[in-house]
């Protein structure tokens, strides 16, 4: 046998009888399936009956296994059973849980199901709260309750603030409601005048100081001084005359009813320096109270005073106490404003504001005298 005959031959399929057959008939039969486990190159199948080369399988590379890392043993300390439990460290918050809380129950077992509030406490419960506060001086709860239920405490201040806010809102929406809300109480103030320009500022002042007050005005005449008093003495005599006239006409106004009189007068501080000032007098003979107070002065030109003096007749019966023409009428004609608005036109401050500030000082002094009189009795 020759060398060529020793080579292995791939068996050829039999040739079909028809001569030329399908192209698939010339394809060699499939060889052994490739092994996908190892990365072996894919050998294409020869389209002809060519010799298939021998496939060399790659040798696997064996990597050395690293030596194991020694594990350090962890020594666990045995628990000290002899150490007392109370001496062990425990978590302690920065603020103790008992801060501001009572250390014992407020309610007894009998009324453990009941719920108490500061409003439902009996009248003598404040003494019990004081005792509990003494037992637990560091308790903030009992301190709050003591201040809340006591006179003038937290609840009283909150209620007063809420009432003041509601009253302020109502009077802002309707200014006429101010007199309705603040009228009432036990205090009655009578003004010796029927002019609203005098009654309104006195009413506002006394209701502001006392909270509630009834302020009414009656017409009062003064025929002992001039129409326009000049000097403090003339104004004082005219105011006293108005108070006496009120008490003589209205017999129901006994000596225990305070009467306030307002009298405007001219005062010459230095030569040709004139001021229009209002004198306020409060009289209550039953308590021996007579308060006198002067308002802020409004500057008056010397020419206006000279005009009032020139308009007064020489035979005027009260020429010694003043003029027959008021300074208000002369200033109003000069400034071309109503008689009651000349102070505001001249200085920017109305007479009502001037009287209200003076009347508030008068009401404050009167309130202090009432407190002193009540303490003495």
From TrEMBL:
One Gene Ontology MF term: protein kinase A regulatory subunit binding
Example of a GO cellular component annotation carried by this entry: Golgi apparatus
Domain spans labelled Non-canonical purine NTP phosphatase/PRRC1: 193-280
Domain of life: Eukaryota
Pfam family membership, one: NTPase_I-T
Entry keywords, A to Z: Golgi apparatus
Ranges for region Disordered: 1-37, 79-127
InterPro entries: ITPase-like_fam (IPR029001), NTPase/PRRC1 (IPR026533), PRRC1 (IPR026534)
Ranges of Polar residues composition bias in the record: 22-35, 111-127
Gene3D superfamilies reported for this sequence: 3.90.950.10
Cellular compartments annotated: Golgi apparatus
Entry annotated with the keyword Ribonucleoprotein: no
Family affiliation: Belongs to the PRRC1 family.
Protein's name according to its UniProt entry: Non-canonical purine NTP phosphatase/PRRC1 domain-containing protein
Species per Swiss-Prot/TrEMBL record: Chrysodeixis includens (Soybean looper)
Organism phylogeny: Eukaryota, Metazoa, Ecdysozoa, Arthropoda, Hexapoda
